[in-house]
Amino acid sequence: MARKDTPEQAEFREHCRRWLGENRPAPPAVRLPEMAIEVSTEDHMGYLSDWQNKCWEAGLVGSDYPKEYGGGGNHGFLRIANQEMSKAGTPFLINVIGLGMAAPTILHHGTEEQKRLYLKPLLAAEEIWCQGFSEPGAGSDLASAQTSAVRDGDNWIINGHKVWTSLATFSKWMILLARHSNDHKYNGLTYFVAPIADTPGVTVRPLIKITGGTGFNEVLFEDVVISDNMRLDEIGKGWTVAMTTLTHERGAAEGAGSGGGAGVEERIEGLVALAKKTPRGNGTAWDDPVLRDRIIQVAIRANGLRQTMRRGRVEGLIDHPMRLPLQGKVVMTELMQDAAAIGMEIAGAASSLYIRDENAPDQGDWPLGYMNSYGMTIAAGTSEVQRNILGERVLGLAKSK
To answer: By residue range, what is the domain housing residue 73?
Structure first.
């Protein structure tokens, strides 16, 4: 049987709907980016941090986390809160890396002291987090990370270079994968919580993306000293801890991620609206049967994805726990990319007008979304990596060479 809300969950769902309806924030003074990883100004950060904090105070953030760590202590509520925030179309939660990756990793692998120290400020958006996994020479091959961690008594000395680090300019903490030994590829990795704000030896450099934004950064460590009590789990268990992080980043755990922000349904509705108002020949783009069919095909794929993901809530139906989450990550990111490409095709030459041009269709959302979409098909492992994992670990195919 498909899982249904318990009476307590149904009551919480109604609370979420009522609270979101009564507390929708006023529009910001500045245009918000599409997603948290694009945030690049203090205005963005202040508005979105305040919104997440209000949601946390109302019990919509950290709902499943134990009360002693700042959560609500109610299993199964986080999924509901995320669903209702997405349905309501509220702003996204800014601490997306903290909520979707750092918090569950600390909960699973952290000490009692670490859980009490880090989780509550993370949930309340009082402290922002970033992820230190990728390196210039270790992107998709995460196990080849070379940022070094050398033991020095009760401390560790960190040296290395992390890249594509979203939100690093605003972050107090980084979840950091570093190499303590070159003798073993996987067992030579150890996982840390690293302070990066105003920390001697840490340099954060914004990277200019194709969009013109600076949401990505590179972070350099030069003889950075961190205490051993910032290590998560045992020395040499870094790969195991990193897999917990990636499981949540890829959506393979219940309640993973965070709510709010635009979803695929909203993008499809936007495509239809754009087609109906864009002149084409003697009518509009919507009158073109070929183009209309392409939009409908995207809508069919989106509905298929939604129904497929429902299977994950049917007990005993899924043969492998990673199948649907990995499929969902690939399909969703590529679907959003295809939708944005159609939006640019509908707009035609006007799609060359960017977000600061008052004549840009839909304020330039379609070219912005298209350029951003490549970051999402790369994040958490490229689509190619995801397909390899599906083939090897789910379908049992031979490993690629």
So the answer is: 7-126
Statement to judge: residues 153 and 121 lie in one domain: no
Q: Name the domain count of the chain.
A: 3
Of 126, 150, 180, the residue that ends a domain is 126
What pLDDT is attached to residue 71? 95
Same domain, 271 and 388: yes
Q: Residue 142 is inside which H or E element, if any?
A: none
Q: Active site residue: 57, 127, 249, 384, which one?
A: 249
| Residue 374, pLDDT above cutoff 90 | no
What is the arithmetic mean of pLDDT over 68-91? 91
CATH number at residue 216: 2.40.110.10
Q: Is 249 a catalytic residue?
A: yes
pLDDT, tens digit (0-9, with 9 covering 90-100), for 244-273? 998 887 664 444 455 666 678 888 999 999
Could you tell me the two tokens for 10?
A: 């149904």
Q: Is 54 exposed, middle or buried (0-12, 13-18, 19+ CB in 10 A)?
A: middle
Compute the distance between CA of residue 232 and CA of residue 234 in angstroms, rounded to an integer. Answer: 7
